[in-house]
């Protein structure tokens, strides 16, 4: 792929780069994106109807089982070339912040260091009542496991629709967007706030905004550069075009 020379120049000189990723960044690892239709057992539900406190209150077992199924899917997958290209980029840029909406932990697995998980991490589990984290729980298939401390129901440590994002992570993400000279929006439909607002915050402060997505999104008209295709292909090519083959 030929990248515009302006973009190559911006990145070569950039001291501060921030990146926002969404489910599309994990698609090539074999995980379904959030707004894909669901498969098999779960085809009758919309993810939006399972990822909420109301859904958990109504039917905790259904929600727990959906996350248990997703957790199992994640255990079998590996980061893809796009995840690793972002690690390469972090190695080249003095101040690099990776903000992700993904709860799958694949950026950390790949080796990203300055990482903000805005929507939590599905591999962590905490008590819905007292908040205590736990690493082990019974695998009774009949009911939702309970907290050893207070007997509250256990839930994934992710942000559900209608819940607040972790304050410190959100503040850091907003600052990173405002300070960025180049801001990437990668594999996200850009429809879920407040993450979607980060690209606009960066743009308002004068950042060059770059989108990499399988298809155009509501952000596309506001970007300086938009590349439509797979992030696992475009990102490694971009890193190679800017920093060469031996970019470590
Ligand atoms: P979506 O499922 O809404 O969007 C995935 C985006 O990735 C789409 O725009 C696709 O076009 C794009 N895409 C798919 N495959 C791709 C690939 N190989 N390379 C590049 N792009 C690709 O997922 P998110 O935007 O992450 O939040 O959704 C945001 C949030 O909505 C999620 O974190 C989740 C959900 O509500 C919570 O659970 C709180």
Q: In words, what does this structure look like?
A:
- By secondary structure, the protein is α/β, with parallel strands linked by helices.
- The chain contains ten helices and nine strands.
- Strands 3-2-1-7-8-9 form a six-stranded parallel beta sheet, sandwiched between helices. Strands 5-4-6 form a three-stranded antiparallel beta sheet.
- Helix 7 links the parallel strand 2 and strand 3.
- 2'-O-acetyl adenosine-5-diphosphoribose (OAD) binds next to helix 2, strand 8 and helix 10.
What's the gist of this structure?
The protein has helices at 5-13, 24-27, 47-50, 53-58, 60-75, 81-92, 106-110, 167-179, 197-204, 231-243; strands at residues 16-21, 95-100, 115-117, 120-127, 133-134, 154-158, 182-186, 208-213, 225-228.
């Amino acid at each position: 792929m030929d990248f515009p020379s302006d973009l190559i120049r911006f990145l070569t000189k950039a001291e501060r780069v921030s990146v926002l990723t969404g489910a599309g960044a994990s698609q090539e690892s074999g995980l379904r994106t959030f707004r894909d239709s669901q498969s098999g057992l779960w085809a009758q539900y919309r993810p939006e109807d399972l990822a909420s406190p109301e859904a958990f209150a109504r039917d905790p077992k259904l929600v727990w089982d959906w996350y248990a199924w997703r957790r199992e899917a994640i255990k079998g997958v590996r980061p893809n070339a796009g995840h690793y290209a972002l690690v390469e980029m972090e190695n080249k840029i003095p101040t690099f912040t990776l903000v992700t909406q993904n709860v799958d932990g694949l950026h950390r697995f790949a080796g990203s260091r300055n990482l903000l998980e805005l929507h939590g991490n599905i591999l962590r589990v905490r008590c819905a009542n007292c908040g205590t984290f736990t690493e082990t729980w019974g695998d009774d298939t009949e009911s939702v496991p309970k907290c050893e401390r207070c007997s509250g129901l256990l839930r994934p440590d992710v942000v559900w629709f209608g819940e607040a994002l972790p304050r410190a992570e959100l503040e850091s993400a907003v600052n990173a967007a405002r300070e960025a000279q180049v801001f990437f929006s990668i594999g996200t439909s850009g429809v879920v706030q407040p993450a979607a607002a980060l690209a606009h915050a960066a743009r308002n402060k004068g950042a060059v905004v770059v989108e990499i997505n399988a298809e155009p999104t509501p952000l596309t008209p506001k970007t300086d550069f938009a590349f439509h295709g797979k992030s696992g292909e475009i990102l490694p090519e971009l890193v190679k075009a800017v920093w060469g083959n031996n970019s470590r």
